[in-house]
Amino acid sequence: QVQLVESGGGLVQPGGSLTLSCEVSETLPGVYEMGWARQARGKQLEQVATIRPSGRPQYIDTVKGRFTVSRDNAKNTLFLQMNSLESADTAVYYCNAISPGGVLQNYWGRGALVTVSS
């Protein structure tokens, strides 16, 4: 069973930075889109950053210019570098591996809490 394990969450002050990591237990087929979603208390889950199999990243407007998604294929690890954090970024962040069209099984991590507060 494929496992995705997030790390790096915690408390950070507004304007600060934090990097999340996601270790994938095995190498997935190259068709998967890897990314990060978040869910703030009382709000819907939203996909904030995705990296395509081609390596092209995609972001929602509210994090563009502040967040960077990247991956280390040799280490089966996905990263989310978050800069200029705002209180609105407070959420549980989930790593995911999505099969376009649902051809293969999707995978999700258990989440890492990021709290932006002074």
Structure write-up:
With 118 residues, the chain is mostly beta strands. Helices cover 0% and strands 48% of the residues. The chain contains no helices and eleven strands. The strands form two sheets. Strands 2, 4, 5, 6, 9, 10 and 11 form a seven-stranded mixed beta sheet that branches. Strands 1-3-8-7 form a four-stranded antiparallel beta sheet, with no helix packed on it. A hairpin with an 8-residue loop joins β9 and β10. It is globular. The chain starts with a strand and ends with a strand. The mean pLDDT is 96.
Short summary:
0% of the residues lie in helices and 48% in strands.
- Determine the fraction of residues in helical runs and give it as a percent range: under 10%
Instruction: Determine the structural class based on helices, strands and strand pairing.
Output: mainly beta
| Share of residues in strands | over 45%
Large-scale geometry: globular
Count every helix, treating DSSP H or I runs of 4 or more residues as helices. 0
- Report how far the terminal alpha carbons are from each other: 40 Å
Q: Give the strand tally.
A: 11
Runs in which pLDDT lies below 50 for 5 or more consecutive residues are: none
Largest sheet: 7 strands, mixed
